[in-house]
Design a protein that fits this description.
The complex is a heterodimer of chains A (252) and B (231). Chain A has 2 domains: 110 residues, Beta-grasp domain (Ubiquitin-like (UB roll)); 116 residues, Fumarate Reductase Iron-sulfur Protein, Chain B, domain 2, CATH 1.10.1060. Helix content of chain A is 34%, strand content 13%. The longest helix of chain A is centred in the last third of the chain and has 15 residues. The N terminus of chain B is likely disordered. The chains are: A alpha+beta (252), B mainly alpha (231). The structure holds protoporphyrin IX containing FE and FE2/S2 (inorganic) cluster. The site of protoporphyrin IX containing FE (HEM) has 24 residues of chain B, from helix 2, helix 4, helix 6 and helix 8.
Chain lengths: 252, 231
Amino acid sequence: MSNDKPMRLKLHVWRQAGPNAAGSMKEYVAENVNPHMSFLEMLDVVNDGLEAKGEAPIAFDHDCREGICGMCSMVINGVPHGGHKGVTACQLHMRHFKDGDEVYIEPWRAKAFPVVKDLIVDRGAFDRIIASGGFVSVATGGAPDANALPIPKRDADAAFDAATCIGCGACVAACKNASASLFVGAKVSHLAHVPQGHPERAERAKNMVAQMDKEGFGTCSNLSQCEAVCPKGITVKVIAELNRELAKAQAK
Amino acid sequence: MSEATATSMDDTLLAKWMRFANSTIGSKMIMAVTGMGLWLFLVAHLAGNLTAFLGKDTFNHYAEALHANPPLLWAVRLALLVGFPLHIFTAIRCAQINRAARPVEYAFANKTPVNPAATTMILSGGVVLAFLGYHLAHFTWRLTGPMPEPFNPYDMLVKGFQQPLIAVFYIAAQILLAGHLAHGLYSMFQHLGLHGQRWTPGVKKFALVVGYGLCTAFSAVPLFVMLGVIK
Ligand code: HEM
Ligand code: FES
């Protein structure tokens, strides 16, 4: 039988009433934390307590709570998503903590991700980068046969690996330079590996990089902090691919 | 009319490359290419230094041969005079972009694991720059350090490194340079888009061995002068 003993944790949480309000770290005590809870469920319980006292609950982003949507976004003890391999904050379980632990919870920090409230940041910059990539040429009409467009297994695998990006932004949050290279690399790599992405390939790389720079993300110093925290295990290979795609687009 | 078309085409081509050079990724490619040039220079420089182990005559002969070939000497100097400032200027520009990209720091330190040599490139680079100034003042302009009478390059080197302070300073600068070069060599591959699942781990190890190896070899000359092997 696993250890079900409830824990008591001391939380330090970033509280900020709005985009232009001054924020600060506030202390809370989380009582009766069940080790089977997820990190977000632990926060739900803390929020129930705050509301019961008439205080404003801690605002945080979440949606699927099963590690696929990329909404949850918090830096836990200095590491985005808490630093367990392949795990988003919503999938992080409280069994990784010990009774009496102190836990620091902060929003993603980047100029391009302004704080909306408490732990919620505006990740519209990612949406604008995606939009700048433009459309993908597809043949409309009846659904083609599955094998009508042969794609080598290696390319299909590479495209799928890159396509697992859920756009959570942990890469930016972890990077000392707040660089979005892993995210943009994943998006560019994904479409560069499949024939559907070829007609707009060069323009896409140029436009997405231009938008990335315009949003105010930092430069890549090959620190690999992004790779260390990516819940989907995307590697810095996609950054090298992004660099290559941009160089090829430039030479055209 | 045709003239106007030609200039506007030049304009767009120039504009296209300026935009590239200004982009974060283009900037890092400039770092990579100038870094590669600096690497090549250091390897050639080291080969020259190591002739000190072959004795006074060989070393002086090498120094003489180098200066007897002004086209080569000036080609290298010119490349360095363009490449080095470009490397430094781009480094500073990137550092500014990076600082601006995170205006509010984490209250609890960023604990995502990272290689310290990689995060201190500006610092190690700055120390190398300071060292370079001293190094030029010492061996190229001969403004400082003990000079032999009558002058010859070998005795200048030996007399210089027989001062422990000078020798230790040279070796210390090499240790910092090693970290810069090791991360720089791996980084160069990434920035130029060269990555392979199978061989990138090898590149990382190679960069460590070559980066630290090069600096160990550079340090060997002052070290062996201190030990009295080169005299
Ligand atoms: C003197 C002052 C120098 C400064 C301020 C400087 C600064 C930097 C910085 C900040 C980077 C990191 C770029 C990044 O964030 O990824 C870098 C990269 C590099 N540096 Fe230097 N550096 C200097 C000297 C040198 C020297 C003497 C060499 C000689 C070999 C060198 C070789 C490299 C290489 C190969 C890279 C990798 C380029 C890349 O990132 O692709 N640097 N330098
Ligand atoms: S809430 Fe969807 S990934 Fe965490």
